[in-house]
Design goal:
Blueprint lengths: L2 H19 L6 H9 L2 E3 L2 E3 L19 E4 L4 E6 L2 E9 L4 E6 L27 E10 L11 E6 L2 E10 L9 E8 L16 H10 L1 E4 L7 H5 L3 E5 L4 E5 L9 E2 L1
Antiparallel strand pairs: 1-2, 3-4, 4-5, 5-6, 6-11, 7-9, 7-10, 8-9, 12-13, 13-14
Bound molecules: 2-acetamido-2-deoxy-beta-D-glucopyranose (6 copies).
One 2-acetamido-2-deoxy-beta-D-glucopyranose binds next to strand 4.
Length: about 260
């Protein structure tokens, strides 16, 4: 078959499929309009690949859903089941500065959860180092200096000992451990401060300031932006996709 006829036919079939699928949901034009709207809350604004507050699931990555607390004027999101306060979103660098909600009030969280990041959504973390908070210890190892220890109420038992340590650790003899990222910039090269020198109070402050993670995607969107489309997400192919305004423009194109 003549290839241009073939391409015409396949485009025709593609359009047909599009129109068969779409009537019950949003049209491409609606998706363009919906996904053009940014998320705005407090000092935070975001577009693709984020969802939330009026940006429907077709506009971004399911794992990147923002939520606005209008009363407190703050943005929050869950990443791998851990709740974070969103402190900054930088589209140019594709960075998200976040702080764990459970550590904003101190070092004793109601539940123990490690910070983990889906490698399909986030770039490998080169900006942070891990710290482990270890909870509910009978005895804190004698190698741990007193300023790296703290006390928490765990399972209704007050005054249980814990300590902090740089790196990824399990709870060992103690009752639980939580791994949290801390920006590398607090560890200037050359200073070579041993992790054990870290004071609990310093960690508490750093956890409130938060750390940065980098999201993937959007490289795929450059062509889309150039042709004045808006980037969205196809939840069937799990790939970014482009929406264009108006009926005469190309319909949804997988990138
Ligand atoms: C919410 O925060 C933003 C940025 O910090 C500020 O400009 C805005 O006035 C605040 N709105 C309310 C209702 O507090
Ligand atoms: C995929 O997106 C469509 C609308 O864009 C929505 O109706 C459907 O529930 C989504 N499916 C999943 C698995 O998220
Ligand atoms: C995070 O998850 C909790 C419970 O699973 C839910 O109640 C909360 O609304 C979620 N927060 C966000 C920002 O999605
Ligand atoms: C930090 O710990 C998490 C969870 O255990 C792990 O996935 C990640 O690779 C660690 N990051 C670094 C920089 O060691
Ligand atoms: C750890 O938890 C167990 C079971 O809840 C409890 O019996 C034990 O006393 C706890 N250990 C410490 C050091 O609190
Ligand atoms: C965190 O990760 C460590 C080691 O990777 C594991 O031993 C520990 O149980 C985890 N903590 C929680 C609360 O899942």
């Amino acid at each position: 078959m003549n290839s241009s006829v073939f391409s015409f036919l396949s485009e025709f079939v593609f359009l047909l499929l599009l129109f068969i699928q779409i009537p019950s949901s949003l049209s491409n034009d609606d998706l363009y309009t919906a996904c053009r709207k940014g998320f705005v809350c407090g000092g935070i604004s975001a577009g693709f690949p984020f969802l939330g507050a009026g940006r429907p699931s077709a506009c971004g990555i399911p794992e990147l859903e923002l939520k606005c607390d209008h009363e407190k004027n703050i943005t929050t999101m869950n990443i791998s089941q851990v709740a974070y306060r969103v402190l900054e979103i930088n589209r140019e660098f594709k960075t998200l500065r976040i702080a764990r909600e459970d550590y904003l009030a101190g070092l004793c969280p109601p539940q123990f959860m490690n910070s983990t990041f889906n490698p399909k959504v986030f770039e490998p973390d080169e900006d942070n180092r891990n710290f482990t908070l270890i909870y509910g210890c009978e005895d804190v190892p004698i190698t741990i200096p007193p300023y790296s220890t703290f006390k928490c109420k765990i399972k209704d038992v007050d005054g249980q000992s814990g300590y902090i340590k740089e790196g990824d650790y399990g709870p060992g003899e103690c009752n639980g451990s939580v791994i949290v990222p801390v920006p590398k910039l607090y560890f200037p090269p050359g200073l070579n401060m041993p992790a054990l020198e870290w004071k609990t109070s310093a960690l508490e402050v750093k956890l409130k300031i938060g750390f940065e993670v980098r999201w993937k995607f959007e490289r795929e969107c450059q062509e889309c932006y150039k042709s004045r489309g808006v980037c969205g997400f196809n939840n069937v192919t799990s790939q970014p996709t482009c929406y264009y305004p108006g009926m005469h423009s190309p319909p949804e194109i997988s990138l």
